[in-house]
């Protein structure tokens, strides 16, 4: 009977229990087991008497336990994957489907990918990461080629040339210039005119726009440090462990704590008096005529590719601050594009105005693709030159530029 029981248990666990677990046949399972047990017993031991009976209650317990184990195995097979692992699996599927997906992606990038509101936004973000990865690989390849060329040139050049090229004067010059720039920046923190960057626009921007903003701020800080009379830069409304902070640490690394600038989480209205603050925004109705050395100018640290109009103007009005816009129409024949400038361009313009007070020199930092030329002639002669520029440069767009010219100079014609 023991051998028959062992054999019957193997048969039930291998054939009957999986079948019952898949089809949910619990009720009809036990009569089947009785017939199987009796038939096997009769086949193996013909001499067993009908009075000898198997313990059916014990078999019920055995089959119930086996059924529960089988069902638990079937339930536990599809393990619950974490959200990051599921995102990585979707990326692998998209890569196999031939979409633009980066080869290596970090956890932060995965989190931003999961936070994208729509499928099209996810595709655009992955395409951006893919192109960024390609650019990095291309730059790395170019650097390796450049290094190989330098090594070949060093091998080909004689030893006398190598000793003459390595001049200690250049190293000494670079070190002394760095010290001079640092000394100027340190003096500006005590005696310099403050320039405020408003760092409260993180929620209005995407991750890509924040990274572009930080790149422009890095360029602005370097150009300010190398100027003759630098500003005392203030980063106001700056929160620790924010996206701005992380991007700055990526660029500066250990030098972030050694920068000669002021970083605070306070608002500029708490640091400076309101009557001295002027918020520079392209949406302001008031035009800036001259640079005031006694005022404190505020620049919004925002890169807005969708061009949300009135964002910085609304913030300045809410705080009750004076606003101003650069006089681009008074000095430039504006052609196409928005009149929003990058942060490093604004820094160059303000530094030039501070040193020279010459608008023409300052507005040379405006991209030349956005304007045709400077307004340095009477309006009657300007129309002739503008028509000539239109015929040579714009072709079909001549009528559109003429309409724009009429709108911008209609007030001057009325005065005449």
Number of helices: 17
- The rough form would be described as elongated
- Helical content band: 55-70%
Q: Which structural class do the helices and strands define?
A: alpha/beta
Distance between the termini: 122 Å
- Which series of helices and strands comes N to C? HHHHHHHHEHEHEHEEHEHEHHEHH
Number of strands: 8
How can the largest sheet be summarized?
A: 6 strands, parallel
As a percent range, the share of strand residues is: 5-15%
Protein name: tRNA methyltransferase 10 homolog C
GO molecular function, one term: tRNA (adenine(9)-N1)-methyltransferase activity
Region (Disordered): 142-164
Keywords: Coiled coil, Methyltransferase, Mitochondrion, S-adenosyl-L-methionine, Transferase, Transit peptide, tRNA processing
């Amino acid at each position: 009977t023991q051998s028959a029981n062992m054999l019957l248990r193997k048969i039930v666990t291998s054939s009957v229990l999986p079948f019952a677990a898949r089809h949910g046949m619990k009720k009809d399972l036990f009569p089947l087991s009785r017939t199987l047990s009796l038939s096997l017993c009769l086949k193996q031991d013909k001499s067993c008497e009908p009075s000898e009976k198997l313990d059916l209650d014990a078999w019920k317990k055995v089959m119930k336990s086996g059924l529960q184990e089988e069902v638990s195995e079937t339930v536990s097979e599809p393990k619950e994957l974490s959200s990051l692992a599921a995102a990585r699996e979707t990326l692998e599927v998209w890569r196999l489907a031939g979409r633009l997906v980066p080869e290596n992606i970090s956890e932060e990038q995965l989190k931003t990918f999961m936070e994208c509101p729509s499928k099209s936004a996810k595709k655009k973000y992955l395409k951006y990461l893919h192109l960024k990865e390609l650019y990095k690989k291309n730059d790395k390849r170019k650097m390796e080629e450049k290094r190989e060329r330098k090594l070949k040139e060093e091998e080909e050049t004689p030893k006398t040339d190598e000793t003459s090229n390595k001049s200690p004067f250049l190293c000494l010059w670079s070190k002394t210039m760095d010290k001079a720039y640092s000394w100027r920046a340190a003096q500006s923190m005590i005696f310099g005119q403050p320039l405020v960057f408003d760092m409260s626009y993180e929620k209005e921007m995407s991750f890509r726009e924040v990274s572009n903003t930080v790149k422009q701020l890095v360029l602005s800080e370097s150009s300010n440090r190398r100027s003759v009379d630098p500003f005392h830069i203030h980063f106001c409304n700056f929160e620790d462990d924010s996206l701005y902070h992380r991007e700055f640490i990526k660029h500066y690394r250990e030098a972030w704590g050694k920068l000669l600038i002021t970083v605070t989480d306070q608002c500029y209205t708490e640091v400076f008096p309101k009557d001295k603050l002027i918020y520079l925004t392209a949406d302001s109705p008031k035009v800036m005529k001259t640079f005031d050395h006694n005022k404190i100018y505020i620049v919004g640290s925002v890169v807005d590719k969708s061009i949300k109009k009135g964002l910085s103007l609304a913030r300045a009005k809410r705080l009750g601050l004076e606003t101003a816009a650069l006089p681009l129409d008074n000095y430039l024949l504006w052609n196409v594009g928005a009149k929003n400038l990058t942060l490093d361009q604004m820094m160059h313009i303000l530094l030039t105005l501070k040193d020279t007070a010459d608008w023409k020199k300052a507005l040379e930092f405006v991209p030349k693709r956005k304007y045709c030329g400077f307004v340095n002639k009477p309006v009657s002669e300007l129309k002739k030159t503008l028509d000539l520029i239109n015929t040579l440069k714009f072709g079909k767009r001549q009528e559109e530029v003429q309409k724009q010219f009429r709108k911008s100079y209609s007030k001057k014609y009325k005065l005449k």
